[in-house]
Write a structure and sequence with these properties.
Chain lengths: 59, 495
């Protein structure tokens, strides 16, 4: 194999591994973040809900 | 047709699930900040997943795959440049941290804080034109990709384009940034799986020694060394590096993820961790393109070669997952872009033409109408327009139309106390000149006088746009300091 091709293949392998490793980590931790986001939004909406009762629902 | 029943089931279930989630999330949209920036409550991991999903569409695979096919390994350095640029933005918080601290929802909003409402209007118009033109080719490339991978043939391209835009417009229009955050996250998981499936399928079939020898035979030293490849060279490298820093900090669909973060520190972390995926995001599809060159030969249409290879090497059953992954990638990109450009048109252009601001409800409805109109435009433009050179260069030159001026305006606005509105006008107009010249004159390259021919070189036009924008900002500000004194930014918010 050409030396240039070998160097690029090594860089490619490291980059691809890095991509999939970050993807795996944020897929797991991101799910927890997502649940927290929806929960906190619901809480905030409940808090503001009474003040909004005179308005007509969501957009 | 290469699609089996099992592949169709995966695809239909995935689409139905995404649509369902997109509509379900609508219930969380209660305010303008909820619609535009998800209430500014996004944490690091979710931010990384949605940012990476926004920046990775089928169009990304198509233009990087095409580059791999037409230039060999040397294009891999673009991935390294992108990673370095986004890492710089994430590590230093360049521009994004200040934007988040000022709690703006769009980049032009910052122009009004630092310069004037008219600068915001001009910046909004240029951003909207550059952004929508940039997005104009997405649908067409997605249509080509999916029709090739699924083995449906070119006659299916229009139907695929219509179906995709209808689905994405529907959930973006209704759910705004909340829908985007939730569906982007799911889509990031699916697209990562799709990329893994495709890469493994190709690695199992391709002979790496053959890839090396085919690239060597086809492109010689230029297939491995970007400095001697006629498509690249030093000028290209400098342009792409600056362009990536500008796009990282100021490309509205991506920057909106920083603006949606729960704090400026989280915004920096989101950019830093996402940068770690950027080399792979570019090199994985580039490798698919290089493999297509080795396995299919150099005579395939450059845009269709990579998807054709994927359709041929991916086992049936897994092909459905791959297509779902690519659709996921596209839908997350479209939705973020649609929301970004429609909110810019509504809040930074239409609202700026009025003396009184719209209410939140009217703003959201106007944004929805503009998003639908952009969807319609994308369909027509995609069917009609023939891109010059490679898709990668088209995307970067249309992006430069806005990012060059924006980098001058925002970076100077944050870090240089003498920046004023005249400098901002000059930066925005001069930054857009060279890319606009390229897009208008490129088709009549042969008839141009020799002294103007340089403008049809995409690398020169791209780099020139940044040089002109910076010159415009510095000269415009220094010459008019007395008649147009700079406005100081108000106090920054800490969260």
């Amino acid at each position: 194999m050409n030396k240039g091709a070998l160097i690029w293949m090594i860089i490619f392998a490291v980059s691809a591994l890095c991509f999939f490793a970050v993807a795996a980590v944020v897929s797991v931790r991101g799910f927890a973040d997502l649940k927290e986001l929806l929960r906190s939004t619901k809480r905030a909406d409940h808090g503001e809900g009474h003040a909004r009762e005179s308005q007509d629902g969501s957009f | 047709m290469t699609f089996s029943i099992f592949d169709w089931i995966i695809l239909v279930v995935y689409l139905a699930f995404t649509m369902g989630i997109g509509f379900w999330v609508k219930r969380y949209v209660e305010s303008l900040s909820g619609y535009m920036v998800a209430g500014r409550r996004v944490k690091t991991s979710l931010g990384v997943a949605t940012f990476a999903a926004t920046e990775t569409g089928t169009i990304t695979f198509m233009y990087f795959g095409e580059l791999g096919y037409v230039s060999g390994f040397s294009c891999f350095m673009i991935g390294i440049l992108a990673m370095l640029a986004y890492m710089f933005v994430g590590k230093t918080g360049f521009v994004i941290a200040a934007l988040r601290r000022h709690r703006v929802m769009s980049i032009p909003e910052f122009y009004e804080l630092r310069y004037s409402r008219r600068v915001r209007l001009l910046g909004g118009i240029i951003l909207f034109i550059g952004g929508v033109l940039n997005m104009g080719i997405f649908l067409k490339f997605d249509g080509i990709f999916l029709s090739e991978v699924m083995g449906l043939g070119p006659q299916a391209i229009t139907l695929i384009m219509i179906l995709m835009i209808v689905v994405v417009v529907a959930y973006t229009v209704l759910g705004g940034m909340f829908s985007i955050i939730v569906t982007d996250f799911m889509q990031f998981v699916i697209l990562s799986l799709g990329m893994l499936v495709a890469t493994v399928a190709i690695l199992l079939k391709v002979d790496l020694a053959q890839v090396s020898s085919v690239v060597s035979a086809q492109y010689g030293e230029g297939g491995f060394n970007p400095l001697v490849n006629p498509r690249f060279g030093w000028m290209f490298i400098v342009w792409i590096l600056i362009s990536n820093v500008a796009a990282g900090a100021l490309w509205q669909p991506g920057t909106s993820k920083a603006l949606a973060s729960e704090s400026p520190e989280v915004a920096k972390k989101v950019f830093f961790y996402t940068s770690l995926t950027f080399a792979g995001r570019a090199m994985i599809p580039m490798f698919w393109g290089v493999a297509a060159l080795a396995m299919l030969g150099p005579n395939e249409p450059s845009t269709a070669a990579m998807p054709k290879l994927l359709g041929a090497v991916t086992p049936r059953g897994l092909l459905g997952l791959l297509v779902a992954g690519m659709l996921a990638a596209s839908m997350s990109t479209y939705s973020a872009y649609l929301l970004a450009w429609s909110s810019v048109m509504t809040r930074d252009v239409i609202a700026c033409l009025r003396t009184k601001d719209f209410g939140e409800r009217t703003t959201i409805w106007l944004t929805r109408i503009v998003a639908t109109l952009i969807g319609l435009f994308l369909l027509i433009f995609g069917l009609w327009y023939q891109i010059p050179d490679t898709a990668f260069q088209y995307l970067f030159i249309t992006g430069a139309m806005y990012t060059a001026g924006a980098l001058g305006c925002v970076a100077a606005g944050i870090y240089w106390s003498k920046a004023n509105s005249m400098g901002a006008y000059s930066a925005l107009v001069m930054g857009a000149l060279a890319p606009a010249g390229f897009l208008l004159l490129e088709k009549s390259r042969e008839t141009l006088p020799s002294w103007l021919a340089f403008i049809t070189d995409v690398n020169i036009s791209g780099l020139l746009s940044f040089a002109l924008a910076f010159t415009g900002m510095i000269l415009g500000s220094l010459v008019t300091q007395k008649v147009c004194p700079p406005i100081k930014l108000g106090a920054e918010e800490t969260t």
